[in-house]
């Protein structure tokens, strides 16, 4: 009976309840100058993205944020301070995937640790 309870606890711990996608947000930077980033949580229909604005073949503007999935792999033309530029949306689906370095997901680490603890406890009982 004890093994069954431990097994059920491990399975329930592995189910993520309402895990939301976390991304980095960088409001605005020019010419790939490092930008102060913050962590944001995307809405259900959004993914992480790196948004680049190019003008005259030069990458001028970069942002990081959550965007609606329908913007992924699209281009928009806009202007800023009298300069026309094309905005490109590079999307990804994974916690902090819009950063230059990958940040491990704490949700996965917690679930893995709980599963290993459950297996270890099952062998002891």
TrEMBL record:
Biological classification of the source: Eukaryota, Metazoa, Chordata, Craniata, Vertebrata
Family: Belongs to the SPACA4/bouncer family.
Domain UPAR/Ly6: start-end pairs: 21-110
Top-level division of the source organism's lineage: Eukaryota
SMART domains found in the cross-reference section: LU
GO CC, alphabetical: extracellular region; plasma membrane; side of membrane
Topology within the bilayer: Lipid-anchor; GPI-anchor
Main localization category: membrane
Protein name per UniProt: UPAR/Ly6 domain-containing protein
Gene Ontology biological process: sperm-egg recognition
Residues of the signal peptide: 1-20
InterPro entries on file: LY6_UPA_recep-like (IPR016054), Snake_toxin-like_sf (IPR045860), SPACA4/Bouncer (IPR046354)
Transmembrane region(s): none
A Pfam entry, by short name: UPAR_LY6
UniProt xrefs under Gene3D superfamilies: CD59 (2.10.60.10)
Native source species: Phrynocephalus forsythii
Keyword Secreted: yes
Subcellular location field: Cell membrane; Secreted
Keywords of this entry: Cell membrane, Disulfide bond, Glycoprotein, GPI-anchor, Lipoprotein, Membrane, Secreted, Signal
